Amino acid sequence: QLELVESGGGLVQPGGSLRLSCAASGPTLDYYTMGWFRQAPGKEREGISCISNSGGSTFYADSVKGRFTITTDNSKNTIYLQMNSLKPEDTAIYYCNLGHNWGQGTQVTVSS
Question: Are the CB atoms for 49 and 60 separated by under 8 Å?
Answer without folding.
Answer: yes
